[in-house]
Specification:
globular; Rossmann fold; single chain
């Protein structure tokens, strides 16, 4: 679970204040909107595990509900409005494409607190939150760079939004930190969860020479292809080792529990404040699953050393020198990319093949 003191301090530091009523008499009704199926792995699964853990920790104080498989668009607005109509006073919308629908509903429901995952729009009763999962992608890259024989890595990407581009770049930078010959090939599937498309993309990448693959998608299809083809891959958002125990090197996972618990407590107490929260390894919002026994000692050592630095806050993945695809310097040696650049990242680092879709 993440550092509670860090979460509460972040919430307290936000500037705008919403005078939320106290819900001490009745359980706080909390709604969640999920982009995919709950299933047993991936992004939505991680959010739902945190929802269940929050219910357990705040037993009697909260009552939660969720709607899964909600498309990003008009359907999302309809679902969010329905959750408001059902009396939910705290609503978490857990995918980037829910940002505008969440903002629209929030403006018409001032008595409800809305939290949107991975977005950038806030309001008096709307905040945003996300994890620095790119830290985990960087660590994945270290293992990939150490274990590849072809020096060609593969990445199955969902949508060309900043959070996904950050993860592709972090993965590549991590790999290049131990192996400067690395190239990363990317295939975009235009879906957060589509096992068939993910499988096809993974098969194509292996055919193109990738012998270690990462993903920013929700199913274990990439790992299953990796195991079938005798190459390696990483779980994403949750531990996916059970689907491909030979191929699964580790997984960058999200633990939203502490954030959900502390946010619910703040709303119940009437002390919730809008703003943004971004947690990583240091705060316990990002966690790495157990390393596969096939990882060589030198790769494990490099991985653990950088993981310790990230956890201590003494290292940031996007610290120069960093060049873009053209070779132009984006960040000089020792310069850390500012947060606003990370939140709007729209370029590939040197070593990533292809172009970002328009």
């Amino acid at each position: 679970m993440m550092n509670r003191r860090t979460v509460l301090a972040t919430l307290a530091a936000a500037t705008a204040f919403v005078a939320a009523p106290s819900f001490a008499a009745d359980p706080l009704k909390i709604g969640f909107v999920y982009v995919g199926p709950v299933g047993d792995a991936g992004w939505t699964y991680a959010h739902d595990q945190a929802r269940l853990a929050m219910e357990k920790e705040l037993a009697g104080k909260v009552k939660t509900t969720y709607v899964e498989n909600v498309p990003e668009g008009a359907d999302a607005e309809r679902v969010i409005r329905k959750l408001v109509a059902e009396g939910n006073k705290l609503i978490f919308t857990t995918s980037f494409g829910y940002m505008n629908p969440t903002e629209k509903v929030a403006k018409s429901a001032p008595g409800v607190v809305f939290l949107h995952a991975t977005g950038f729009k806030t309001g008096k009763n709307m905040g945003v939150y996300e994890s620095r999962l790119y830290e985990g992608a960087y660590l994945d890259g270290i293992l990939a760079g150490k274990m590849t024989k072809s020096n060609t890595l593969g990445f199955i990407a969902s949508f060309p939004v900043p959070e996904v581009i950050r993860n592709i770049n972090a993965f590549t930078l991590g790999a290049q930190s131990v192996n400067p010959k690395i190239k990363t090939k990317v295939i975009w599937v235009n879906s957060w969860y589509d096992p068939a498309k993910e499988r096809q993309a993974a098969e194509t990448l292996v055919a193109q020479g990738a012998d270690v693959m990462a993903q920013n998608t929700d199913s274990p299809a990439t790992l299953q292809v990796a195991q079938e083809k005798g190459v390696y891959a990483f779980g994403w958002d949750s531990d996916m080792s059970k689907f491909a125990p030979k191929a699964h090197l580790t997984a960058a996972t999200n633990d939203w529990t502490g954030y959900y618990v502390d946010t619910a407590k703040a709303v119940i107490a009437g002390t919730w404040k809008t703003g943004s929260y971004n947690g990583g390894l240091k705060e316990g919002m990002v966690k790495m699953s157990k390393l596969n026994a096939v990882v060589p000692a030198d790769a494990a050592k490099a991985f653990e050393e950088k993981k310790a630095a990230l956890t201590a806050g003494t290292f940031a993945p996007f610290t120069g020198p960093i060049k873009d695809q053209s070779g132009a310097i984006k960040y000089a040696a020792g310069v850390k990319a500012p947060e606003k650049d990370l939140m709007s990242m729209n370029f590939y680092v040197q070593g990533v093949d292809g172009a970002i879709p328009k």
